[in-house]
Amino acid sequence: MDTANGVVAGADAITVALSLLLFVVLLMLAATSACGRGPWTVRRQLGTATAVAARTAVLDGPAAYPVIGALHAMDGHQDKPFRRFTELSHQYGPVFSMPMGSMPCVIVNDYPSIKEVLITNGSKFGGRPNFTRYNALFAGDRNNSLALCDWSWLQETRRKIARMYCSPKVCSSNYGLLDSIASDELDVFLESLAAVTVRGSEREVQVKQPLMMASANMFLRFMCTTQFEYGDPKFQNLVRIFDEIFWDINQGYAVDFMPWLRPFYAGHMRKLSNWSTQIRKFMMDAVISKRSSYARAVAEASNGAGDRIRDDDDHGANDGQEPTDFTDALLMSLQKEPRLKMDHVLFELEDFIGGHSAVGNMVMLTLSMVATRPHVAQAIRDEAEQVTGGQRLVRLYDKPDMPYTEATLFETLRIISSPIVPHVATENTTIQGFKISKGTCIIINNYELNTSPVYWNDPEVFDPNRFVHHKPGVKPCIRKPEYFLPFGTGKRTCIGQQLVSGFGFVLLAGILQRYEVMATAQMAIPEARLALPPDTYPLILRPLDGSRI
Ligand code: HEM
């Protein structure tokens, strides 16, 4: 599952009330302390501003109080936490301290500091925060998740197994498979849209649901060699649950930072673990249990690794044979790495299948961007027409010849500014010379990076061309500045980037080849969040006149 977008700093109604109550009490306490500031506030000691002094400096930030930390600074800004971080950075500098509840947090707002956290000094920031919700989603232990776990041998091993499938080389057989799966599923998806649209007229269509199912099937076909009917209620439920989780993980909850609020969230935590149980049940019943490689792996686990069972049927992970797909590769890895357990690989598979929610939401948001910018849709159609001669739907292999279309996905990710999962310092270290203690949660302000005029011309304008490099006599191609980090960077960078730009590209181009897409009055695009609510606004679709494909 793509759990990449865990965001911070929101607070729900109960918590706001509790926090405010506490805040008033604590403010009274604080008023008695020196200088009118909370005694717990850490201060930036810029003093001499020499390099030596900076090495010992501690960070400035909003006043922090026991129990709530500096969460009061978010009051009234719960919906736009990253915009608030930017405002605070103007006051306290690009790196500032902002304890949230009982958790020490540092907000990092500019490219040099973000680069230091993710790349230059990345080995010291490989942890993730220990949020109760993260644990609830992964059977009580967030280390079962790829995106929410701390760095360890397990994470290194899991990333290695995933690389071949999630980042296939263009000339590889897996890339060919991605191409054919994307095209086959696009056909099914467009058929499902054709069933609810009418030639010559426009219709309001709930695009998100079929889009999520198309995306889910692309992932399931590629990773598990299986697919489901859009009308299958069990499949619909699976896709829905993944989307609910994607939405939830993109929210900020006060309980993340104030674990003592847990009793108020007991019902919510139960709901999260119930979703996780339902996903496991579907995957076991409909995907895993049917495989001979699963039966073999279970038997080997109970017999001991040396005592292999031989079985030569179709999905078999036989000795010396190549795995048939990602699921097989995962099951076979149990033989190669004795420290890996069945649960590790099952969670990994579920995690990756869940990546489809990110792709579906991203395409829905891109369509929403395009819906109010018909010139962008037309430019994509023109590009598709040039490459296909108007005779066929776009394929994955067309991507290098269609930089504007791919750039439209990137421009959506820039404008949306989906957050980077918080990191945690795994040892005492520094950022830009400022002391960072082990265990500090590092929140990366990707929104500032994506929307500041420091980095972009006319940042508020939606212009895919900013990612297209045009040079006379040379084929236009994608060019991304180094500070554009929608997938993070460094050792914990997103593993799903190629699947995102591959499947996302085919879906976006395919829809626009067939339809004019327009906005409805309900359309509401969120800020700094890739997730749309599971039940979201419809879009208006009008089949294009004279479409031959
Ligand atoms: C538009 C879609 C997506 C976006 C914007 C996105 C973005 C991100 C970001 C920002 C991170 C965190 C990087 C960091 O902490 O430095 C991440 C991590 C991750 N993503 Fe994605 N992601 C997307 C889709 C996917 C998909 C489709 C998959 C799976 C197939 C996936 C798998 C992962 C995994 C496993 C991690 C955790 C890596 C680690 O912590 O070691 N993502 N993603």
* CA-based shape: globular
Adjacency order of strands in the biggest sheet: 1-2-7-4
- Main sheet characteristics: 4 strands, mixed
The amount of helix comes to 40-55%
Structural class: alpha+beta
Distance between the termini: 34 Å
Poorly predicted parts: 1-52, 306-318
Mean pLDDT, rounded to whole units?
A: 88
Count of helical regions: 19
What would you note in describing this structure?
This protein is of the alpha+beta class. The chain is built from 19 helices and eleven strands. A four-stranded mixed β-sheet has the order 1-2-7-4, with helices on both faces. Helix 8 (208-224) packs antiparallel against helix 15 (355-371) and helix 9 (233-249) packs across helix 11. It is globular. It starts with 12 loop residues before the first helix and ends in a 6-residue tail after the last strand. The structure holds protoporphyrin IX containing FE.
